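Key idea: predict the complex, not the pieces.
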Amino acid sequence: MRVVHKYGGTSVGSLERIRATAKLIQADIARGNEVAVVVSAMSGDTNRLMSMAQEMHAVPSAREMDALLSTGEQVSAALLSMALNHLGITAYSYNGAQAGFRTDSSHARARIKDVQSDHLIHHMQVGEVAVVTGFQGIDEAGNITTLGRGGSDTSDVALAIAVQADICDIYTDVDGIYTTDPRIVPQASKLQYISYEEMLEFASLGAKVLQTRSVGLAMRFDMPIHLRSSFEDISGTIVGGEDTDMERAEITGVAYNRDEAKVTIKGIPDQPGIAARIFGPVADADINVDVIVQNVSEHGYTDITFTVPRHDYTATMHLLQDLCVAMNAEKVKGDDTVAKVSIIGVGMRSHTGVALKMFDVLSHENINIQMITTSEIKVTVVLDEKYVELAVRSLHRAFDLDTTI
Amino acid sequence: MRVVHKYGGTSVGSLERIRATAKLIQADIARGNEVAVVVSAMSGDTNRLMSMAQEMHAVPSAREMDALLSTGEQVSAALLSMALNHLGITAYSYNGAQAGFRTDSSHARARIKDVQSDHLIHHMQVGEVAVVTGFQGIDEAGNITTLGRGGSDTSDVALAIAVQADICDIYTDVDGIYTTDPRIVPQASKLQYISYEEMLEFASLGAKVLQTRSVGLAMRFDMPIHLRSSFEDISGTIVGGEDTDMERAEITGVAYNRDEAKVTIKGIPDQPGIAARIFGPVADADINVDVIVQNVSEHGYTDITFTVPRHDYTATMHLLQDLCVAMNAEKVKGDDTVAKVSIIGVGMRSHTGVALKMFDVLSHENINIQMITTSEIKVTVVLDEKYVELAVRSLHRAFDLDTTI
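Result:
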């Protein structure tokens, strides 16, 4: 198999961790695989560089920031190559430019245009390892760019696609995706397999393990991702195309996110365009709106409720107070102690009863549902934060996800 | 004027020093100059990277070492660009590849083949500053290379030649070249001007301010170097082509080097090829031989004496003991408490009495001369280390270099 590994900042966060990472690569080569590697900067290094930049300029030039930060991965790539050499493995480090990562010119959040990496395939074919810096590339003019949040995962997937790998392995500090958070439900079990779509839903619910962006890219090119632990050489969760297992469970997992707040404008005179008048300013303020519910209009007045990340709660409330006056609405209400709980599963496409069963389970526990939103493979409810554990536990049990020990 | 500045590790050794360096550049632009800049890594950074590499591999790959170390200059170049931006100056950092430094593939001691820097000229012409990483380049295959000792000075001179600068300014922690060491002779004065040839002699005598390599390159392309302080904006010493000043002093300066040892093989059967039999193995051991004296042969036997750097003394003595046996020579003698004192000056070409005057001055002070070597613009004597100060002081006075205060 041809595999592109990716190691995040903690996997190369110390010289000891770099040595351990080199051993994981050695083990995979010993299994007969052709391996290339994508690395992040040593954890802490990026912050060190950023704070130096801050001392030089309150708002450093994005181009220079990219030139500065890109050194972080170059350091870890060179050190990891040396560690591999020490194990007797021929290895070469490549920075973004050398590895052929062509991007657009949007510094700090560049998008990959293509990866010209034929020279890297040669290394893999003769048992050598190319260690490529994640998170970076160059634009057409030769400027160094960085990819922004989740960039290294995206580099990994893009490189895997370019070298026609069979799979890309993302080594991280968790060992896979679980049916739910094991800190809440000890019976939670690691999923062997999850579909791209499900992973996207998990990621958008704040599962920090994989960025939406890299999953989206993998899905588009059908490049399976093996999400696995960098602390032990065991298999994790494979994110891939939909399987055809007839027996698969109704739902794949239960996710939650506490980082939520809910705001409501009540008594808005119901006219065309009110949604735009509200969400325009909210978007301008870079606030991410999630679940939105608009009540059925009554006597020419309506209410709109939506959730925002909790750290945007105060800003959102201020904004809505102003809008309330401008729109002649009745009043603004808010609650920053709500949470989201979701059940996710490609199985539910053909199981219309799933949503109903979820509401039933929650009602049985006397948990009040404040808002509901559904997608093809997810049902999300907003509820009082204090019920999160109870809701997650009962749903996990009710949908037969508890493992028998 | 078009000027390429170079700042060494101490000039960018802290965020405060980077800010001060940005101000020096600003001052030069305010004088109406077009400026590009070459920077070294922040002092300490290279050692930090090297020690990490040592932890990964006892003998790290030279290619990976270059990839690792080259990040040092990239960091300082980006930070200096930000500091310039902060002063309202448009600036862009360029690493070796981006600046067009093409080298051969000798990692850790690459030689510059050419500098494709037309794009940097454009910045200078519109009042912008290109901040280029010194010490590095890329080879034909796109591998990162470093230039080795004195590399950043050489980058500076090479870039100045490429962008057709009028002069290259090397900012350093000394403010110029002095007639001799002011710690020994307080009346020593800063030279406004020194020829390339003289500077080469000073450099080869261990003056750490400029590497022979960069002076040689400057001489070949007649690119004047302004050696000046990075701590205050005053003029230093200009190294350039010979001036035609009729009034110039017989000698330009008195230099010395304590880092010397002297070894002798006595009673070697005098046959053709003995020099090769001795200096072959010495060169193989990477020992730099300097002054060599061979006695006139007597009764078929001869003596050979030469100096080596003091830290190579023990190794040289061991080597010679073996050679002594192999060559049927009488014995080996050594002394690691000698020093060299030289008088240097292009003026002496037409002043044959200079050497004689030197010997006279030393003899007057009862200083015994152990060895003598002369070049077109230099007379060097080897003497007991304890006489260094006395010799330097009396020569400085005798050749009218003492300034009147």
